[in-house]
Protein: Carbon-monoxide dehydrogenase small subunit
Organism: Spirochaeta isovalerica
Amino acid sequence: MNEITVNGRIYHFDDSLLDKKLLNYIREDLELTGTKNGCGVGACGACTVLIDGVAKKSCVVPLGKAVGKSVVTIEGVESADGTLHPLQQAFIDAGAIQCGFCTPGMIMKGLDLLEKNPHPSREEIRKAFSGNLCRCTGYQQIIDAVELYIVRTD
Ligand code: FES
Ligand code: FES
């Protein structure tokens, strides 16, 4: 049996799933549908999760590559009592969510960025999100949201 930790919970799966996309395992087997399937080929970022703390596009990660690792999805970001993560709240307050399809991936990518660089410049934020597509917002509010988060949590 293989083991994976998702949002702090340990799951086991047999070798028949090793080639399954991590994205599909998360959505179909674990029924965590917050992680979105946009393009399925690594081009849009909607499927972004953290694997051992690093943002990865889960549609291009075979489950076998995540064996023994710790995965965090958007469902694992809020606190135990259901309070949104401050970055999620900042996205809402900055108007960075319209249809919301890109948002889980944006949040995960944003968390990765802020972990590596707690005070990114506007240009650094823009660059960090260059692999995450949004059809709705024009990106400005997403960058505003990260800046709002920084101001609030500093
Ligand atoms: S669904 Fe994975 S990058 Fe688009
Ligand atoms: S809010 Fe709709 S794709 Fe980003």
